[in-house]
Amino acid sequence: MLHGMRSLPPPLAAEIHRRLELALDAGRQAGRRTLDFFQQDTFAVERKADDSPVTIADRTAEQLLRERIAQAFPADGMVGEEFGTTPGRSDFTWILDPIDGTKSFIHGVPLYGTMIGITCQERALAGFVYFPALDEAIHAAVGEGAWHVRGQHPPRRARVSTKARLAEGLFVTSQVDSFARRGAAAVYQALEAAAWVTRTWGDCYGYLLVATGRAEVMIDPILNVWDAAAVQPIIEEAGGSFTDWAGRPTIQAGEAVATNGAVRAEVLQITAPFAATPP
Predict the structure, then answer these.
(1) Residue 137 near residue 28 (C-beta atoms within 8 A)
(2) For the chain, which domains are there?
């Protein structure tokens, strides 16, 4: 049974819905704030300790999100890429990535997004991703389906593709050399050989492609919890699978495989021998 068939107890579902409503509004506001800097040469790009880039746009957007969340749900915790962890007093934690795809952002490429994941007792139960330069968004809550929005058009149900073999499908990832950096170059080579088409339309945009049926598999060899929390419920509610390389549904593994479900077994046969925690 696909994970999208799950449901939540009504009181928990109501609490998640309240938070998702805020995520949709605040996420769009924060994403649009990044457009003040997008394709401009007026801001500096810094390098963090892990050599990843960060800009004033990342920090400005995350600060906006934190202020909106703290005002509406002061007991909730927060985890963000730029400002770390703020402990909460409730069971809910917001996991924030103000710009997922900063490398795309700083090069003027519109395939970046603002990501908000909502967890309860460490379970990712809702997510929202907004692509401000494309004015495209996708959101989901467990038991309520995944919904795709373009511009001012009404939301449409997001569904994964039905292609049954990688040989018929599109494989996307974020950066090819990340496979070699974790000693798994053979995984990329095998997936590229098996797939009909391979592209590096990665970061959160790759997960959008899977959730909307435009790609069959998106893989990240290296990622953080703020890269995963928003997209797990989205992929699952669209009818697909979101797991670690061994096939376990989690946002904590530091790696991810998102598929349309139909090619899941074929993909995991390739990734499982290289999983961070062997199956």
Answers:
(1) yes
(2) 3-157 (3.30.540.10), 166-274 (3.40.190.80)
CB-based contact 52:63 (threshold 8 Å): no
- Give the confidence band of 162 by pLDDT, cuts at 50, 70, 90: very high
pLDDT for the residue 55: 83
pTM as predicted: 0.94
Distance of alpha carbon 25 from alpha carbon 121, whole angstroms: 24
Q: How far apart are CA 246 and CA 258, in angstroms?
A: 12
Burial (0-12, 13-18, 19+ Cβ within 10 Å), 85: exposed
Query: For residues 175 and 122, what is the distance between their CA atoms, to the nearest angstrom?
Result: 28
With 0-12 CB in 10 A as exposed, 13-18 as middle and 19+ as buried, what is 229?
buried
Give the tens place of pLDDT for each residue, 202-245: 999 999 999 999 999 999 999 999 999 999 999 999 999 999 99
pLDDT digits (tens, 9 = 90+) for 47-71: 766 657 778 899 999 999 999 999 9
Distance separating alpha carbons of residues 219 and 221, to the nearest angstrom: 6
Handedness of CA 252, 256, 258, 262 (dihedral sign): negative
Instruction: Identify which of 86, 68, 89, 70 has the alpha carbon closest to the alpha carbon of residue 78.
Output: 86
Supply the pLDDT for residue 4: 47
Q: Which residues is 120 bridged to in the sheet?
A: 92, 123
Nearest Cα to 170, choosing from 134, 131, 219? Answer: 219
Q: Encode pLDDT of 89-99 as tens digits.
A: 999 999 999 99
Task: Give Cβ neighbours of residue 48 (< 8 Å, ≥ 6 apart).
Answer: 54
Residue indicated by tokens 């300790």: 49
Find, among 146, 136, 116, the residue nearest to 128 by Cα.
116
